[in-house]
Amino acid sequence: MAKLVYGGNVTFNMTNDLLVSVQRVMEIKFADSQGFWFEHEGQGAWFHPSIPVLIQYDDDKPIRYSRERTSNLADDADGLLGVSLGPNSVLARMEIVDPDWEKPVDSEGDTSGN
């Protein structure tokens, strides 16, 4: 597991793919000197640019970045409740899929829409 250590005493463990999205949201918010609430698997903290953060990825494998996940997390970070991820969170479990995966299929099995 990859980990994010916040303030030297709070550690959040997550997949590389999720961590890269959280890191990007932090970059966006911190660039504007904004903080946000972050909760992952029952542990939470107020993330603020004045608090040190250590990000460690668990291996050298390529990381699968999801713009959709990052966008959804950024929207949550802008909200009153902040980012809340857990084992049942849709965003935490979001996989990167083939773009054709979501094409509607009619009763004949046709994905062309004709």
From TrEMBL:
Domain DUF7882: 1-85
Domain of life: Bacteria
Pfam families attached to this UniProt entry: DUF7882
InterPro entries membership: DUF7882
Protein name (Swiss-Prot/TrEMBL): DUF7882 domain-containing protein
Source organism per UniProt: Nocardia fluminea
